[in-house]
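Long-time lurker, first post. I've been practising inverse folding by hand and with some scripts of my own, and I keep getting stuck on stretches where the structure tokens seem ambiguous. Below is the full token string for one chain I'm working on. Before anyone asks, I'm not after the true native sequence, just a reasonable design that respects the backbone. If someone could post their per-position residues I'd love to compare against what I wrote down in my notebook.
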């Protein structure tokens, strides 16, 4: 039996960021000999242009969410791949802006085998945030979050998409269903 070799960080050639807050983009970099360096030196790091511009000049309200020296390490190596708006990254992999948490956050959609998985990051950080008015206090534009959720929830439900909850400690992913005027979840095991 041949055991496949492990993937090395040099093998990764594409990283898609929803946004650049440390809790979502912290894996972009690492410390090596007390220096911040890109974790994947051969990768292009995809992010919305407006998000990188904001991250380099954050407001007092969200300054603590960005680690500027980590962003600069990727800039120094010329690894940012900046996009503007919705875009297909590769066949079956696309990004769409989902403003509200910040101005240029994006969802990542992966489609194939008659299924779609949507990682909507902090638009729906947990299953508890599915109801329209349940919005995180961290959101810079909560009324925009409300409108973005109003647009996205029907798409998720009608499409039968699997939605990933990036901050839910108990339910990593689920499908959403409209039943009796309420949205209910059906957890999905991503390992099967």
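-- Answer (accepted) --
I ran through it position by position. Result:
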């Amino acid at each position: 039996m041949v055991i496949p070799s492990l993937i090395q960080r040099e093998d990764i050639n594409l990283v898609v960021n929803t946004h650049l807050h440390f809790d979502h983009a912290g894996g972009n970099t690492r410390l090596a000999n007390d220096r911040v360096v890109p974790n994947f030196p051969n990768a292009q790091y995809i992010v919305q242009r407006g998000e990188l511009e904001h991250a380099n000049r954050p407001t007092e309200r969200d300054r603590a969410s960005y680690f500027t020296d980590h962003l600069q390490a990727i800039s120094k190596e010329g690894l940012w791949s900046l996009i503007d708006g919705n875009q297909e990254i590769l066949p079956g992999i696309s990004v769409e802006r989902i403003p509200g948490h910040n101005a240029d956050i994006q969802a990542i959609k992966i489609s194939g085998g008659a299924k779609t998985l949507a990682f909507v990051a902090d638009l729906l950080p947990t299953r508890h945030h599915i109801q329209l008015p349940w919005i995180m206090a961290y959101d810079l534009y909560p009324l925009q979050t409300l409108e973005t959720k109003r647009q996205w929830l029907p798409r998720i439900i009608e499409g039968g998409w699997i939605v990933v909850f990036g901050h839910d400690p108990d339910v990593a992913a689920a499908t959403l269903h409209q039943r009796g005027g309420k949205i209910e979840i059906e957890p999905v095991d991503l390992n099967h």
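A couple of notes from the structure itself: The chain has four helices and twelve strands. The radius of gyration is 18 Å. Happy to go over any region you disagree with.
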